[in-house]
Amino acid sequence: MTSGPRPATTTDVVTTALELVGAASVSPDAGPAAKILAAVLESHGFAVSVDDWGNTLGHIDFGPGPTVLFDAHIDTVEVGDRSRWTHDPAGELVGDRIVGRGIVDTKGPLAAAITAAHRMVGQPGLGGRLVISGSVDEELAEGPSLGRILDDVNPDVVVIGEPSANTLRIGQRGRAEVEVEIIGASSHSAFPESGINAVEVMAEVIIALRDLPLRTDPHVGTGLLTLVSIRSEPYPSQSTVPSRCVAVFDRRTVVGESDTTILDDIGAVVESVAHEYGAGSVTRLARARWQTWRGRNVDVPIYAPAWYEEPQEWPVTDVMAALRRNDFDATIGTWKFCTHGSESAGRRSIPTVGFGPGDPGQAHTPDESMSLAELRAGVEGYRAIFSALLVAR
Q: Concatenated DSSP letters for 25-55?
């Protein structure tokens, strides 16, 4: 354990947020931010560990009781076109707002959680272990890096620190990237009838998939199927009918769907159309491959299941009651986007809730920003949540 916590001040969370935003961490190169986070956690009284993926964890022991894991990812998307930013993407205090890549998604929530935990040291009536994790590579694939953390921490409950405008989130749609491959037959483009044009067959597949029935869930919404990319071979073509075409679809899922049902539903349509034109087909999950900043090679299917926690059950009941006692918005909702909760709740059925300062619509945008008032309110929200979950035995 490192030295005891330093005295908290009202500027702690602002300083911490600016420190984290100022550390570059575009996926998968999160090393600089991970090192800054480790120093921040140590200065706030946490015992710190870093696993073989590069996830940075801070631990505070409050005595006998449950293990509560808070997770916010430290990796970010690219800054993008710098000319579209009017302020420094590496973090700038502009009036009553912090501007910078990652302040909303999700370094602001992480700073708020660290500050909240720091202020709870010595608070009477608490019990258990609080672990705060700054996970890596969430922007590349939701779930795998948190899975590595869960293997070690084995929490009783998980709090996901994604932006929610400081309201409680208890579920989300899932996400899959589905690759559809059409295998045709090449020929000279002067004699197209001698081949099977894989692109033309794919065009028919795309049209047919528009009529694919998609399920609706009363809590997380309706499933989606969106074409996001397409490529053909040979490319560039030299008077050759393309023999191969691969399209990638983003499939947003609802509770009750699985990777198997998704592939079966899409694959049946694809196979039927391909057969009609004498082409072959393959339907599969796309894969994400990268190397973490610690040198770990990752190769995973891009699939993160939907999840939903019942509002009448623990931990939602206790967390919501605590937020109401502290005058937070009583609204309970679900996220439209995918989070690491797909791993904790969707795959492993670990009780999971979500909460975070920031407008989700600010994520991935130029001049991404968060108000200081919302950031500071996030500190109080996390303190209420952690206090409700860290119950002494």
A: -BTT--HHHHHHHHHHHHHTT-EEEE-TT--
Record the tokens describing residue 243, joined without a space: 């023999």
Q: Torsions phi, psi of 272, nearest 5?
A: -65, -45
The structure tokens 């030295």 sit at: 3
Element (H, E) at 221: strand 221-222
Q: What's the rounded Cα separation, in Å, for the pair 152 and 183?
A: 44
User: Using alpha carbons only, what angle is made at residue 306 by residues 304 and 312, rounded to the nearest 5 degrees?
Assistant: 145
Where do we find the tokens 């968060």? 370
Where in the chain are all domains bearing CATH 3.40.630.10? 12-172+306-389
Sequence letter at residue 360: P
Amino acid at 291: Q
- Second-level CATH architecture of 174-289: 2-Layer Sandwich (3.30)
- Element holding 56 (H helix, E strand): strand 56-61
Torsion angle defined by CA atoms of residues 291, 295, 296 and 300, in that order, rounded to the nearest 10 degrees: 0
Tokens of 202: 């794919």
C-alpha–C-alpha distance, residues 27 and 48, integer Å: 22
Per-residue pLDDT of the chain (393 residues; tens, 9 = 90+): 333 333 333 348 999 999 999 999 999 999 999 999 999 999 999 999 999 999 999 999 999 999 999 999 999 999 999 999 999 999 999 999 999 999 999 999 999 999 999 999 999 999 999 999 999 999 999 999 999 999 999 999 999 999 999 999 999 999 999 999 999 999 999 999 999 999 999 999 999 999 999 999 999 999 999 999 999 999 999 999 999 999 999 999 999 999 999 999 999 999 999 999 999 999 999 999 999 999 999 999 999 999 999 999 999 999 999 999 999 998 999 999 999 999 999 999 999 999 999 999 999 999 999 999 999 999 999 999 999 999 987
CATH tag, 12-172+306-389: 3.40.630.10
